[in-house]
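Bumping my old thread because nobody answered last time. Still need a sequence for this structure:
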């Protein structure tokens, strides 16, 4: 009887190939099957980070999703289909690596495959550098110190929820800014925390930028932007 393959969740970091861990790179090279989230055109940010190390002969499983859609039905169907495909490979003894930008279990798409396949096959997760750590490094800005607490929030939350959570924390990282930036800025302004906020756009990519909040509001920022705020300098 063939031993089942192992499902690996590989964090490939925020976008800079030099921030991929040695362990993730070793497993990427070793696994015969590689899966990665893709948009309807087939492009994948996670795959692009490690593209130079994906050699011909790999079995690739794109997980195609409509990231613009507000509903979850298409995404859930894509994860179901990908889990079925990966289960077939794992049952035949082939190890499979699922690429995930940032960390697999920090807002990572890998968690949805983990839910579907854990308990059926061996699983191993390789952590990656998160967007919070990457943005702090790019901005050369401490995230927390001493007895401070950190709250990580998606900008997609309703305005009143953002206000309540930001008011209750010493430091925060607000992710997924995009079209929600003005809402986040309004909350920070009411809390008297707008002046010290910093916005990092596409950390780890060649076009990364560090902006003040007024600059970010003037220029507009994409979805993959993150705001850091802290009560102390």
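Sorry it took so long. Here it is:
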């Amino acid at each position: 009887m063939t031993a089942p393959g192992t499902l690996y969740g590989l964090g490939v970091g925020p976008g800079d190939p030099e921030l991929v861990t040695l362990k993730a790179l070793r497993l990427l090279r070793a696994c015969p099957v590689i899966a990665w989230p893709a948009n309807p055109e087939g492009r994948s940010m996670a795959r692009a980070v490690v593209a130079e190390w994906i050699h011909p002969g790999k079995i690739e499983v794109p997980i195609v999703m409509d990231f613009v859609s507000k509903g979850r039905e298409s995404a859930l169907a894509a994860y179901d289909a990908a889990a079925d495909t990966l289960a077939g490979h794992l049952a035949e003894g082939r190890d499979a690596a699922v690429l995930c930008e940032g960390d697999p279990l920090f807002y990572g798409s890998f968690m949805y495959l983990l839910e579907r396949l854990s308990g059926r096959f061996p699983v191993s997760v390789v952590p990656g550098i998160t967007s919070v750590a990457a943005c702090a490094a790019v901005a050369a800005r401490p995230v927390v110190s001493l007895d401070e607490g950190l709250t990580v929030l998606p900008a997609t939350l309703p305005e009143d929820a953002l206000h309540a959570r930001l008011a209750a924390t010493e430091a925060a990282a607000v992710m997924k800014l995009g079209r929600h930036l003005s809402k986040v800025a309004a909350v920070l302004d009411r809390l008297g925390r707008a002046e010290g906020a910093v916005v990092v756009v596409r950390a780890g990519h060649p076009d990364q930028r560090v902006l003040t909040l007024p600059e970010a509001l003037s220029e507009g920022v994409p979805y993959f932007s993150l705001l850091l705020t802290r009560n102390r300098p």
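The chain has a mean pLDDT of 93. Let me know if any region looks off to you.
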